[in-house]
Specification:
Strand content: under 5%
Number of strands: 0
Oligomer: single chain
Distance between the termini: 77 Å
Mean pLDDT: 79
Structural class: mainly alpha
Largest sheet: none
């Protein structure tokens, strides 16, 4: 929270004042806020790892109690072929979710860029003072961003829902337990890596923005330099890295564990009788992904076009009413003039 507040305050200061000392203090607060947010993301990754470990143990006890088996006693090979397949599936699905989320972040950014470039509705109202000059454009941009973000989140959500069902039906309870364990360890390592990588790009860019980088002659390398442009490209990668590591991966593994625990009654110890449901789950997931990519876009475009036509029709009706009122007024004035004459 401190990181988000300091970042917003930093942007407001740079939008509203050119006072050097005020901007310098805002820069310091933003740097401290980024460090605090980075530490919070690392702590949340460790917290997610501990929570999922406890849920996995609960799933183990509940499943084997339902099957009438003592889960504290090992019978047969500790790591069966289903367990090994579960570890592999956990790694693959985690990387697939990471790729889906990063692609969704980049697509959302591109959509924002196109909208801001092509739409005149988000231009600053220069005839109004700040902050009134930005309220209407920000309202329009917020509405567009909400709809766009909701569209982009469907594919990662489908991925999250499908993982425990695929593991339970294709690999049984043994594979599902090892899927959780493998994903949990991988996500902890991946979260720390992505957080550190993303924060490094952001910190390097702000290091130049704050005027702290100098060349061999002692001259300040500022935001108009080639180094700053290169770091801007790097931040486009580092930003999605942090978004994936913090809000996405931690929630992915916790939701996966809880959903596996809730649906535990659907799975058997081995998948001899349930593998057919796995193929049905694959087909359903692909259909939903295709719908979210194409069908949902078509529906939203139709709704947007319909609402825009309604607005235009309403504007025409209001204009026609104004014209008719003016004609009626002119007619009454003419009649009054004739009577007076």
């Amino acid at each position: 929270s401190y990181g988000a507040i300091s970042t917003i305050a930093h942007k407001i200061v740079h939008l509203t004042t050119y006072h050097s000392m005020t901007r310098h203090r805002a820069n310091i607060c933003a740097a401290l806020g980024d460090s605090a947010a980075h530490g919070g993301n690392i702590i949340s990754a460790v917290n997610a790892f501990s929570a999922v470990f406890n849920v996995a143990m609960t799933l183990l006890a509940q499943a084997y109690t339902r099957l009438g088996m003592n889960y504290q006693m090992i019978s047969g090979a500790p790591v069966s072929e289903w367990s090994q397949a579960g570890l592999l599936l956990g790694v693959v699905m985690t990387m697939l979710f990471t790729a889906n989320t990063i692609i969704s972040c980049l697509e959302t950014s591109k959509a924002f860029m196109r909208f801001c470039k092509e739409s005149k509705e988000v231009d600053q109202k220069r005839n109004l003072p700040f902050p009134y000059s930005h309220i209407q454009p920000l309202t329009i941009l917020t509405s567009f961003g909400t709809v766009t973000s909701m569209r982009m989140v469907f594919t990662p959500m489908i991925n999250t829902l499908a993982v425990p069902m695929l593991g339970g039906w294709f690999l049984g309870l043994r594979g599902l337990l090892f899927l959780l364990s493998g994903s949990n360890v991988l996500i902890l390592c991946l979260s720390i890596f992505l957080n550190n990588s993303g924060q490094s790009w952001v910190a390097a860019k702000k290091y130049i923005l704050f005027g702290s980088l100098k060349d061999q002659d002692g001259k300040v390398i500022g935001p108009d330099s080639a180094e700053y442009e290169n770091l801007g490209v790097g931040e486009m990668i580092g930003g999605p890295f942090e978004d994936v590591a913090g809000p996405a991966l931690n929630n992915f593994i916790k939701f996966l564990a809880v959903f596996a625990l809730v649906t535990e009654g659907l799975y058997e110890e081995t998948p001899e009788n349930t593998w057919i449901y796995g193929f049905a789950c694959c087909a359903g997931s692909l259909i939903l992904v295709a719908f979210s990519k194409f069908g949902l876009t078509l529906i939203l475009n139709c709704l947007t076009s319909f609402l825009r036509q309604r607005q235009l029709q309403r504007a025409r009706d209001e204009h026609d009413e104004e014209l008719s009122d003016e004609e009626d007024g002119d007619g009454e004035e003419g009649r009054v003039g004739i009577e007076d004459a």
